Amino acid sequence: MRATIITIGDELLGGETVDTNSAYIARRLGELGVGVRSMVSVADRPEEISPVVDRAARESDLVVVTGGLGPTVDDVTKQAIALAAGRELKVDKQLLEHLEERFRDHSGVRPGVLESLAAVPEGARTLGNPVGAAAGLALTHKGTTIYVLPGVPHEMEAIFEGSIAAELKGLALDRFRKTRLVRTIGLRESVIAERLQPMMPLGGIALGYLPRTAGVDLRLTASAADEAGADSLLDEAVARIVGPLGQHVFSTEGEPLHTVVGRMLIERGMTIAIAESCTGGLVGHLLTEVAGISASLERDIVAYSNTAKAESLGVDRALIHEHGAVSAEVAEAMASGVRRLAGADLGVSTTGIAGPDGGTREKPVGLVYMGFAWEGGSQVAKNVFRGTREMVKQRAAARVLDMIRCHLLDTGA
Ligand code: ATP
Fold first, then answer.
1. pTM to 2 decimals?
2. I want to staple 6 with a disulfide (CB 3.0 to 4.6 A). Which of 51, 65, 157, 171 is the partner?
3. How far away, in angstroms, is 70 Cα from ligand 1 center?
4. 44: Cβ below 6 Å to ligand 1?
């Protein structure tokens, strides 16, 4: 079974709104065993929408349309669908009663709005909207089911899950598709591909590479007769690919790095203190995304100036003078300093040049030193990250989190 997804709205074509609806629907259809053959975005004009819907109905087994279902002048989807299917728009009495009930206390509702919301192409079924006013629609045209949903993402999702998912499950499609995300850090895409080459092809699994700002995700998609079959194919494939990638895999369940690291710290009862310069609090921000991290995160000090590094972390001014604020020596002193002040098990630090200006031949833009201190030891990592200022910050923060993770794994803490 193959589907076409059509999203409607000038704001999508103008680039002001990112089309997240298509991604959501495609992912869910895939999980329900329906492949997507194409996605199209169309302007708010019935004469442009109508031929696209008509063609999709001819070429696909299923069409899902979102957007333009509201009562405003730019909401023309129902007209367009009626035009494509050669039907009249008629007020659905039951829907109108439901809307009148819902809007009874809203005395300011413009006359005609409810009639416009209750108008549906003849022969269309309405799909209840538990979180908004615009109902979804389902109709058959040229033997193809066309679902029409509001554009507001949470309304679209509510109707999809409440009505469409159940209807598709009822069709008992013969394939079940499931996806798992294996997340890695510290290896290039080409190196991963080389290491995985001997295990290809992975039986029954499609493997996709998704490079991120920090790290590469591997998307494994299994296709099987049922969910249990897909799960067992995925378990087998994950077990095979994790071997050659070793510690570079930080999650086989699609979790973010900071979640994994935060949980490791909490589970091990380890306390941590952070001193950040070029990452400006990003490492601390990421860790504070993790519920329960107060048990481990003692403090995060953003010490941007030399004075702050000396005053709030106890870094020797002479050290900064001699080696510069962006140096292995200062990174180490920042990590040890914050650890000592906090009385924490671990101290980490960042100091670098995020750019775009401020680089020299010896110390280029993207150079970041990351300090790491623990009872009886310390370590400094030097990296030159490429990319924009934002990317350098994100990559440095991810690298620091990964240093913490690897330390905890290596020491068996
Ligand atoms: P309403 O009842 O609110 O008028 P609607 O069905 O008419 O809903 P639109 O007016 O097209 O929907 O869009 C409503 C909101 O949903 C807008 O903020 C729009 O940017 C957003 N939106 C529309 N289509 C998409 C999409 N494909 N992906 C993400 N957001 C979308």
1. 0.70
2. 65
3. 9
4. no
